[in-house]
Amino acid sequence: MTPYAIFTAFQTIVVREIRRFTRIWPQTLLPPAVTMTLYFIIFGNLIGSRIGQMDGFDYMSFIVPGLIMMSVITSSYANVVSSFFSMKFQRSIEELLVSPVPNWVILAGYVAGGMARGLGVGFIVTLLSLAFTQLQIHNLPVVILTVCLTSALFSLGGFINAMLATKFDDISIVPTFILTPLTYLGGVFYSIQLLPEFWQGVSMINPILYMVNAFRYGILGVSDVNVWIALGMVLFFITVLVVVCLRMLQRGKGIRH
Amino acid sequence: MTNALHIEGLVKTYGDGMHALKGIDLTVAQGDFFALLGPNGAGKSTTLGIVCSLVNKTSGIVRVFGHDIDTDLSAAKLNLGVVPQEFNFNQFEKVFDIVTTQAGYYGIPIKRARASAEHYLRKLGLWAKRDSPARMLSGGMKRRLMIARALVHEPRLLILDEPTAGVDIELRRSMWSFLEEMNRQGTTIILTTHYLEEAEALCRNIAIIDQGLILKHTSKKELLQQLHVETFVLDTDQALTAPPVLNGFTTHLTDEGALEVEVEKGQGLNEVFAELNRHGIKVMSMRTKANRLEELFLRLVEENADSGAVLQ
User: Fold this and answer.
1) Which of A36, A80, B58, B85 has the greatest number of CB atoms lying within 10 Å of its CB?
2) What is the ipTM of this complex?
3) Is residue B12 domain-shared with residue B39, that is, in the same domain?
4) What is the pLDDT of residues B203-257, one digit of tens each?
5) Does the beta-carbon distance from A100 to B52 stay under 8 Å?
6) By residue range, what is the domain housing residue A26?
7) Are residues B124 and B116 in contact, defined by beta-carbon separation less than 8 angstroms?
């Protein structure tokens, strides 16, 4: 395939992915908007007003970056895992497998689709947060870099989950039992400085803590961890997951007999 | 001239140890209309699955228009269009989107993809349904949608795995005409089918596969010449209680009371009628018991089972 043909194939996958999640927007775009609005109202306004300041910011301002990041993570992951698994389930993945699209383009297309939904939802949640607080941007490049890399990383995670899944239950296990607890414990609602020393140490092995804090640094200028270490870790995990995904595609894990 | 498809020593052993293909050789010339026939589980879909990259081969060589799928897979795929046995499109997507998306996977820009999709959807009588979700189509329409999707990038080799399964006779005939037209225009076609009448009507060359081995690989004409016995079913004017003894012919009575006569190669039907006249039996109507290819196919598969290929 020529570079232009490869670009057309990539564009086709991305457009189809965007068409899919916008067609079913009440399932994909609306729920995070509703959930995050409730978080803003309940945790930010009602409870937050009694909590006072966290890391020098009012509680609402403190949790907004974490909640934006939480919606980006879950939406990126959910988009790829549900789209790719449903293609496997309906066997429409064969449309791609018989075509000359290289494996890396398939992966790039799905990751871009996941990022489109993740960033789209992140944008919606950001707009909603403006109704509750004034958002300042401390470091725009860090904000953009963190949100894009995190979205890419969890899109890759969703891809692996979809490749390995053999039934619908398998695509909800990771989000329910791993992703959600790690996100809640990743400093979305609190600074780990509040925790006893032992639990601070435990928190440091949670990768989501680094992403939430890097993003919070970009917006508020405060972080529990070193931003550059956080971004380096995300880049490292992205590299590992890309290699894993490409090997799985090469072997046809779960998609070829 | 390079063959459209060249298969050499193709072996497939599935993870559970099942030997689906035991080293098959197969060639399909450019422009051919080729049938791959065999009973269920013979290895037809596995063979085609390997050619289309849906199944990983264990060993062997596969070339599509000279492009080896191990070293030049992308070029091999560009020449291929595939119509699988089962519906494998997103049931919630619109007909037009399914076809144009497939064109996009082949690197065809959207404007050209739309024109090509319109062309094939019109040809296959689906243009009026272009905005319908695929799940709303009838079974026959879904089959035609898969043909349009397979053709949208104008492949040189079209592979159809039981394309007319479950399709009514009228639609089946119209699909035959369409495929014959595609073949006349230069597209090489390989099909698997359970309707041997279909293979006999459409194909010039035939391979018969059973238990992972190619039993026959020859032209339809040559294959039919190997048919030594043909069975005719005669409805007579009398209610026969026992088959009459006809000199030189084997006869049976069917449960419905019709007379079956086996006619060997070189024997004439006139002799059958002469013998029946001698018994005072008048023939009211006559038909073949099975179509010729079907008869030959059944014999070959039975012989293969008897020869103990099952144990291999």
Assistant:
1) A80
2) 0.85
3) yes
4) 999 898 888 999 888 888 877 776 677 788 888 888 888 888 888 888 888 877 7
5) no
6) 3-251
7) no
